[in-house]
């Protein structure tokens, strides 16, 4: 793995949980996992804060394990991925992408 990216986000008020989750399972996850630059792409729904009754600041997060950042950049610019990115952006709010490196 060359890099891991975390994406944290909430849904826009006019996006239903069912619509987003159906789209994520049927379109986003299989398409991104089909890219040659991706080792693994997963989407998670948060369920709470450990030892707290407070609501998590983000409802969802994604992990993107990237094998080749240059190839990922090329693939992310494809027509298919641009369409998926636009659909995603239309459904989410408070989107934060975090780049990481393993210790």
Topology of helices and strands:
Blueprint: E1 3-11, H1 17-33, E2 38-45, E3 60-66, H2 69-76, H3 79-91, E4 92-100
Describe this structure in words.
This protein has helices spanning 17-33, 69-76, 79-91; strands spanning 3-11, 38-45, 60-66, 92-100. The longest helix has 17 residues, at 17-33. The two termini are 13 Å apart. The chain has a four-stranded antiparallel beta sheet with strand order 2-3-1-4. By secondary structure, the chain is an alpha+beta fold.
Q: Which stretches are poorly predicted, pLDDT < 50 over at least 5 residues?
A: none
Separation of the first and last Cα atoms: 13 Å
- What proportion of the residues is helical, as a percent range? 25-40%
The global form is: globular
Provide the gyration radius in Å. Answer: 14 Å
The CATH architecture is 2-Layer Sandwich
Strand content: 25-35%
Order of helices and strands: EHEEHHE
Number of domains as seen in the coordinates:
1
Query: Given this structure, which CATH class is correct?
Result: Alpha Beta
CATH fold call: Alpha-Beta Plaits
Number of helical elements: 3
Main beta sheet: 4 strands, antiparallel
Mean pLDDT across residues:
97
Number of strands: 4
Structural class: alpha+beta
Short précis:
It is built from three helices and four strands; from the N terminus they run E-H-E-E-H-H-E. The protein is globular.
């Amino acid at each position: 793995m060359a890099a891991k990216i975390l994406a944290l986000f909430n849904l826009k008020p006019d996006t239903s949980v069912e619509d987003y989750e159906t789209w994520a399972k049927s379109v986003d996850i299989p398409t991104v996992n089909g890219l040659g630059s991706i080792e693994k792409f997963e989407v998670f729904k948060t369920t709470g804060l450990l030892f707290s009754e407070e609501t998590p600041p983000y409802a969802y997060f994604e992990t993107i394990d990237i094998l080749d950042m240059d190839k990922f950049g090329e693939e992310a610019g494809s027509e298919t991925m641009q369409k998926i990115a636009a659909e995603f952006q239309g459904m989410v709010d408070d989107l934060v992408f975090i780049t990481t490196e393993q210790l």
